[in-house]
Amino acid sequence: MSLQPIQDPGLPTHVHRKADTDPKAAKRAEQQVALLFLTSALGTILFIFSYVGIPQDQLIFLPILGTTNSHQLFLGLGLAISLFFIGMGAVHWAKTLMPDHEVVDVRREQRSKDEDRAAFVATIKEQGATAGLGRRTLIKRTLGLSLGLAGLSPLLLLRDCSAELPGDELGQTNWRAGTRLLTDPGDRPIKPGDLEVGAVAQVLPLLPAGRKRTLNDIAKDALLLIRIRPEEFNLDAERLSWTYQGIIAFSKICSHMGCAVALYEQSTKHLLCPCHQSTFDVTRAAKVIFGPAARSLPQLPISVDSEGYLVASAPFNEAVGPSYWERDSE
Amino acid sequence: MARLSGYRDHRFFRPVLLALGLFLAGALFTAGKAAAESMESKALVISADKATLIKEGKEIFARGCSSCHGLNAEGAGAAPSLIGVGSASVDFQVGTGRMPMADMSQQAVRKPPVYDEYETAALAEYVASLAPGPKALTNEEIAWERDGNAASGGTLFRNNCAMCHNLAGQGGALTRGKYAPTLMGVEARHIYEAMITGPQAMPVFGDKVITPAEKLDIIKWIKEVESEPSLGGATLGRVGPVTEGLLAWTLGLGALIGVAVWLTSKAR
Questions:
Q1: Contact A185 B23 (CB under 8 A)
Q2: Nearest CA of chain A to the CA of B233: how many Å?
């Protein structure tokens, strides 16, 4: 069977609308369009009325929606009706009454005629000669210099678009050896006895005097303090020495995408990240047991100071939070 | 009937039927939700003395609790020992209907209490007599309306509670079928007791970590959220982008598709 080229089906036959043939239908369509425009006008009036007439704090009860602010509700409803029905009227008008003959507009060639192109080139050459660019080389060169230098300035501005490089700041927190643990909020120092078995506390570091805590600080320093029975730990000797009487401290910043990991299930000793359900086992130094996180939560070594308050005994041994290029992410 | 079924061929029949169905489903849901929310226990003045209460509590315990928790509340298998959990724990677990458990599922769920206020108090007194533990409170002891500060409570709630119980206290999912329940419609003393005892998966928030005054702040904030009218209309459960997105994608996009179909259809 040989392949036959498909015949050009041509244009479909033009079907007349009711309004094209029946004057009564045309009249009806006209009235429908008018009705739509009138509805729009009513919407605008509703909008104006709600703006001036309905007190801003007036509430109204509507089924399903519940109690809501009537000022805002009718403002929005009025504007929506006003705009929507202008459009609807215009479309209905175009669809039912405006001429609907199919029009064929054959595509033209995009290329200009040859004589137009030649004339354009001639004009450019003539103007160049008149300006004397070829003759006055001093002007040509200085113009080149000024244009070239002017092009440099945006580059200079672009360079300043990037903030200063963070350096090793991403790997640093405000936790140092001897930094006291404070409740967040409340900023109270914590004694080991303040935490019952099964308790958690949200913790931030005590900053040096005069240093004000910023949101950036909180984003890196946030710590979760958990107390379980010491015999429930399943840690090696080093990690066990980082805990204090069953109290263990982890960075609250998820090692996956940096959300605050703080859903602690006391019954299972699991920490859950609300964003992507990464689950960490507190008894095994926040080892990942489910979800997309690749690394355990960093553990902060803690002990008590001479006054009996909980302090960090060393900074975090790794960067907190998600991966970035320069970090060591084994 | 014949006249009614004649409407089936009308071009508006299906859209109208759909709208009616959606409305009915919504109305049923709202009615069911209201019915579920109306279970609040009544306060009762307990006049019996402590010894009587302990004695009666022991009897109720032997009948209703000992099959799981053991005759001396020593615990067995999945049922924990109740020695040292204190009266607060009993008042919370029994007062909210979580105990006795209906079945051994992932989580004991809130349901209408099995024991009345007097029996609950007797049980609490008995368990408290086994070993010291957090003490149950009465609603009158928790003056959150007078002493609470909602602004401070909001900060505390966002830092300590919101990750599990949702930013507006509506509850949320945990692992393996467990969940943090909604805090709406919970009595103030039960919220307080949950914080000091750490029921089920919930950790303990002791009085040094969140002071008693701060606990009142949190309760005040929860109660303010509960009574706050929603000026934007339907709250959609206050669970954030999930229901809002669902609504935008189904109703909003549905309406847009409807308009697009009408826009491109040829007039007859």
A1: no
A2: 5
In a domain, A71, yes or no: yes
- Nearest residue to A181 (alpha-carbon basis) of A99, A105, A248, A90: A248
Residues B160-210: pLDDT tens digits? 999 899 888 998 888 888 899 999 989 999 999 999 998 888 999 988 889
Q: Are residues B90 and B148 in the same domain?
A: no
How close does chain B come to A118, measured CA to CA in Å?
46
Q: What is the pTM of this model?
A: 0.73
Interacting residues of A186 by C-beta distance below 8 A, sequence separation 6+ = B210, B211, B214
CB under 8 Å to A146, separation ≥6 — which residues? none
d(CA B134, nearest CA chain A) in Å = 11
Number of other CB atoms surrounding residue A23 within 10 Å? 9
ipTM of the complex: 0.72
Nearest to A301 by CA among A172, A169, A179: A179
For an interface test with A, the pick among B33, B105, B159 (most A C-beta atoms closer than 10 Å) comes out as: B159
Residue B268 lies in a domain: no
> Residues near A52 by Cβ (< 8 Å), separated by ≥ 6?
none
User: Residue B95: which CATH number?
Assistant: 1.10.760.10
